Amino acid sequence: MNMKTRATEKTISQLLRTLGQPARLQILLAIGKGEACVCHLEAVLGLRQAYISQHLMALRKAKILQTRREGRYIFYRLKDPKILDLVHLAGEVTSTAVPIRPLFTEATFVADCVCPTCAPAA
């Protein structure tokens, strides 16, 4: 086995380890091919902001997510939407149905949220 093969195996292993947390899979499925801020993820997943933020940090560190800042809000999106194909394929291999969460679009808003997407226009 050469060094390049070992490096590739290590990279793939790290990706799969990062995806191995159920909350991270939920976040990826919730974001889908759109983008979402933490307030959106809180509303859809029913998880605490601090918990979500920890997982978002791990996904960013693994270069799975990208961010876009709008004022004081950060919006998250998949760096490569093919990661969803990997999640769905894992669902097929394990003979489980992978639920598709609603995609967040510019038209999506969350009640009581004050981010630029949700706040009413002034």
Short account of what is shown:
With 122 residues, this protein is of the alpha+beta class.
Please, could you describe this protein's structure?
The protein is α+β, with helices and mostly antiparallel strands and about 120 residues long. It has one domain (about 20-120): Arc Repressor Mutant, subunit A. Helices cover about 50% and strands about 10% of the residues. The chain has 5 helices and 3 strands. The radius of gyration is 16 Å and the shape is globular.
Report mean pLDDT, rounded to a whole number. Answer: 85
Helix count equals 5
* CATH architecture assignment: Orthogonal Bundle
Question: What is the helical fraction, as a range of percent?
Answer: 40-55%
- Secondary-structure element pattern, one letter each: HHEHHEEH
Radius of gyration: 16 Å
Separation, N- and C-terminal Cα atoms: 62 Å
Q: Main sheet, how many strands, which sense, barrel?
A: 3 strands, antiparallel
Shape: globular
CATH fold field value:
Arc Repressor Mutant, subunit A
Number of domains: 1
> Count the strands?
3
Give the helix/strand class: alpha+beta
Provide the β-strand percentage band: 5-15%
> In CATH's first tier, which class applies?
Mainly Alpha
Taking strands numbered 1, 2, ... along the chain, how are they ordered across the largest sheet? 1-3-2
CATH homologous superfamily name?
A: Winged helix-like DNA-binding domain superfamily/Winged helix DNA-binding domain
User: Which stretches of 5+ consecutive residues score pLDDT under 50?
Assistant: none
